[in-house]
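Sequence, please.
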């Protein structure tokens, strides 16, 4: 929970309400960081598409073999990159207009991944508006896990048991995340989040008809089920490993706490340091602070934006968090253990 107001700006410039972010936005625009990067996304999406095609070709060539489990592992990584591509399409980083962004999102999310684009867009938009808000951010809603001691004190059902051991169970539970996204997508078709339920429902059915139809047509039932377990399990771990470092363990915002846009995004987000591997693995989301401040900023611009943002936050006296990948996991797990402490004490 945020327990104190950030220090006031020492800058001599007069700033009205909300103008701290406006100044940062002007600096980004002056550096040309807000424009589209079509060549980058052509190469990136083309590479992921070729990797997917290569995985499918390997699957067809190997036939009914236990070697398919290596293909399942490789396709889990490819699916992780597809999810990051869907994320960028949703934020209009690839296309500036809504229609091509939506068409691309439906293709990648619904058809290729088996996840509702409309449902995920609604959920992710609410997360961006109120990151780490105890009641408004769906990513920290107390479902199976609790993210604060206040949530732990009110936990019911499975969350009461899982919350006691959630730090140890976190990565094992991630193996179910891919299936959870698909289940939640079908469930959301009956709610208001999905604006075109018939279209998305049809696309989801097509995805799973091809996915399971192909598996059971080529593999024996036992091998097909093992393929699903490896593929979906590793896909869930890939997703969780990318998204968990960004906000978990950062301050939670409770009802009644007021922060302007700049501080709300910076204080609740964490950047992950690293080189090219981290950039590729996390699809640019290692620059989470800059992504939350400028969601439509293309991935290749985020590294330069990070330098500008960190310097600007130093001018204003706003804490700016950067840490290594494994250190971020350790922080997130410590936070989960601390949040679940009331449940352990209540036994």
């Amino acid at each position: 929970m945020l327990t104190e107001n950030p220090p006031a700006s020492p800058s001599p410039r007069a700033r009205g309400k909300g103008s701290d972010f406006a100044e940062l936005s002007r600096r980004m625009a002056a550096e040309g960081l807000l424009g589209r990067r079509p060549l980058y996304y052509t190469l990136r999406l083309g590479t992921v598409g070729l990797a997917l095609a290569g995985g499918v070709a390997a699957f067809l060539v190997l036939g009914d073999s236990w070697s398919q489990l290596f293909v399942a592992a490789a396709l889990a990584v490819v699916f992780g990159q597809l999810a990051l591509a869907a994320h960028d399409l949703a934020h209009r980083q690839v296309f500036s207009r809504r229609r091509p962004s939506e068409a691309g999102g439906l293709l990648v999310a619904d058809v290729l991944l088996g996840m509702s684009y409309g449902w995920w867009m609604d959920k992710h938009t609410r997360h961006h508006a109120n990151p780490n808000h105890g009641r408004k951010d769906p990513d920290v809603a107390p479902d199976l896990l609790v993210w604060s001691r206040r949530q732990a004190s009110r936990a019911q059902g499975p969350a009461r048991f899982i919350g006691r051991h959630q730090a140890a169970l976190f990565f094992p539970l991630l193996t179910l995340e891919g299936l959870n996204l698909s289940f939640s997508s079908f469930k959301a078709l009956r709610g208001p989040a999905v604006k075109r339920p018939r279209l998305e429902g049809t696309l989801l059915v097509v995805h799973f008809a091809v996915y399971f139809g192909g598996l059971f047509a080529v593999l024996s039932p036992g091998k097909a089920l093992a393929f699903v377990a490896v593929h979906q399990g590793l896909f869930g771990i890939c997703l969780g490993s990318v998204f968990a470092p960004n906000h978990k363990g950062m301050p939670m915002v409770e009802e009644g706490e007021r922060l302007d846009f700049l501080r709300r995004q910076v204080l609740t987000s964490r950047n992950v340091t690293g080189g090219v591997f981290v950039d590729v693995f996390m699809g640019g989301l290692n620059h989470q602070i800059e992504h939350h401040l400028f969601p439509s900023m293309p991935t290749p611009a985020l590294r330069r934006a990070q330098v500008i943002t960190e310097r600007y936050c130093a001018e204003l006296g706003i804490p700016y968090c950067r840490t290594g990948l494994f250190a971020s996991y350790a922080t997130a797990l410590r936070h989960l253990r601390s949040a679940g402490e009331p449940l352990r004490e209540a036994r």
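The chain has a mean pLDDT of 92.
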